[in-house]
Amino acid sequence: MLLRLKEMKAALAAAQTQGVSMRRRLMIYLFTIIVFFALLIVILLLLFGAITPIGYEIERALDNQLKNSANLLERQGNDQAAYALDFSQQITEAVRNELTDAGITFDQLRNHPDALESMQNKLFEIVNSHMLLTPCSGAFCFLNTTVNDTLPDKSYSGLYLKFANLYAENTIHNDVCLFRGFPTVARKKNMNLHSTWQLETQTEAFPEIDGLMSGKSGNLSESWFLTSVYQLPDTWESVRFLCIPVLDPDGVTIGVCGFEISSLYFSLSHKTMGSGQAHIFCALLTEESDHYAGQVAGNQSGYFPLVENTFFLDDRKPLTIFHSGNTKFIGKIQKLKIGTTPHLVAVMLPATEYQALIRTAQLKIAAFLFIAFLATLVSVLWCSKKYVAPILQGLEQIKTSTDRAQGESHVLEIEDLFAFLAEQDRAHEATLSSLQQERLEAQSRQERLQSKLEQASNDLGSAQAEIARLAYSRKQEIDPDDFQYFWEGISQLTPTERKVFDLYLEGKNAKEILAILGVTENTLKFHNKNIYNKLGVSSRKQLLRYATLLKQQEGKEQQ
Fold first, then answer.
1. Residues spanned by the domain of 62
2. Of 307, 271, 272, 270, whose CA–CA distance to 292 is shortest?
3. What are the strands, taking DSSP E only, across 263-326?
4. Is the pTM of this model over 0.70?
5. Geometric angle at alpha carbon 486, from 480 and 492, rounded to 5°
6. Which stretch of DSSP H or E encloses residue 540?
7. Distance between CA atoms of residues 457 and 478, nearest Å
8. Is 198 part of any domain?
9. Are both 142 and 248 inside the same structural domain?
10. pLDDT of 485-507, one tens digit each?
11. N or C: at which end does the chain have fewer Cβ atoms within 10 angstroms?
């Protein structure tokens, strides 16, 4: 059992120094399995769209907002176009009726202030009612005539009404003021004049209106368009105009009417939805030589970008980079044709905010991965310890316990190992007990043989002493001449006779000599007779006596 225990300890020591520990191996297996399944779950979630990268989420939010803004602008443009078409037709009818009642032609309105004032009074309700019905910040009707064409600055006569103090998209409760037109019209309608009021609108202030005023119009329903952004003279406001020509009964353009969409109204009516992603906002841009200009809407959360009205675009699919002054934005664009003019609908967010969202998402992912890794590591350590503890306890019990039959463990394999080792111990103990019994028996036999050997040695010493004594005493009785004859006769013996002589000296008897030499008894007698004759002896006893004396003499000579 002790030998078995030493073998087990040596095996455990070799395993600890040469191989990987069982707990460490289990930790590696568990950690690998957990990481594999975690990666598999993440990949499946990504494939099925359950989780999306932050960049893709922002891009999707931009796509949704772009789609909503483009649809809203297109729908609003169509509504404004429908009102503008009816607006133009009613203006045409009202001008014709007023000219008929006054008994004059359209050309006779030029340099005729009273007729123009009467015409504006006639047109006021049409302009005002369409402004109230249409989603806009103002309405106008410019006629291709003037109160005084001798002035150096050419101008158009007409009405231009605006909502005052805009604060919401709904303009029902807003006051109306007169921006261009006769002041008497404002007084009659109990209306205030705009702070920068003028009687007429200067030509060249709005080139696109000038072009429409002097051009030829075809189909009225296909002649409307949305202008670029203009700065209203003597104001801080920037506006667009949705324009449509006013025709006489012969189809000749006699004026332009339409609606004003100020940048403030655009911002109020096109606020983007509040988003948890970022401050996404919308803009309607028009290309102007090497840059784009337009109107910007804020965010329903209250965010409004501090930007200039000019943008430089760097279209990098799938995202577009916008530069406005020293500020950079990231977003998406979509082409939109409003009437006959092309525009760009853009949704964007500050580049710094986009990058901050990406970094925040990356930090969150890194923190999540770190926490997951830490939790996984702790779980693996705990599980491996709990799993390996009874095994290590069993192994420790194997190293320290001498009675494995009494070993207890809650692990079935360890219990089987205990039973196997106990059986092995019993077999080893039985073998060891048998070997010990055999060793004791061998020791006993050795002791008996040693005793006999000592007795034989003592007997031999006594015999030798007696022989020496007898030889000495006999020596005094032996005739020297006979002994000399014996000594010389030895050299005359044949080889066979010498063998027989030597066997006698070794203490062999006749029967043993017959067995050794393999001769017959008669042959042995023949050799004995020859030996006796050549040595001068008469018996074997005398032969042995002479031989003993010869050995003693040779021993003394050698000394």
1. 54-67+268-357
2. 307
3. 281-288, 291-297, 310-316, 319-324
4. no
5. 150
6. helix 540-558
7. 30
8. yes
9. yes
10. 887 888 888 888 888 888 888 88
11. C
